[in-house]
Amino acid sequence: GVANTLARANISSKVVFNAVDVNFFKPVAIKRSGLLFVGRNVDRKGIDVILKSAKANTDILHRIVSNNIPRVIRNLSNVEVYENISRLKLLNLYQKSKAIVLPSKCGEGMPLVLLEALACGTPAIVTKVTGNSELINSKVGKVIQNITAHKIKVAFKELEKHNLEKNCVMRARKFSLANLTKNISELYYAAYTRTI
Description:
The chain is of the alpha/beta class. Helices cover 42% and strands 12% of the residues. The chain is built from 9 helices and 6 strands, in the order H-E-H-E-H-E-H-E-H-E-H-E-H-H-H. The chain has a 6-stranded parallel β-sheet with strand order 3-2-1-4-5-6, sandwiched between helices.
């Protein structure tokens, strides 16, 4: 990422990550099921992999929060499609899903959807790209190289065997709004005191 590029040029830097509202995004006692995808219907988000997974993995409920999903996918019995939903509805989907999947084809930065899902106790299945693989580890999900519909199913079935909710919540708390505010304040203070 940018921090590595700056380091190679001997320029000191600090990374400020996205933050999540852990007071809003939090788990509830509810029976979880299915796989959740939240993202735009664009190639770089890996939407084609989700659509292939929905067709191939008919034993797994696929909740897709996106736009312009083809009717052939919408009509599958294992698919629920949501468009233009409220923040409250998104919270509900995170809370009742067994896992979130983000099959990105290129770097993501620090995906807010992953932070929100983790804060709700929802583990993640992600591709090994920048951002995803820095946030997700084996304690909170699965990182997959060259993700496919089959690999999604294998990862999902593996995650079903474990309760990672507490690990997910603890991971998300590291990226809370309170921690972000603290980190930014410390950076400004350090920069200010160096210039005096």
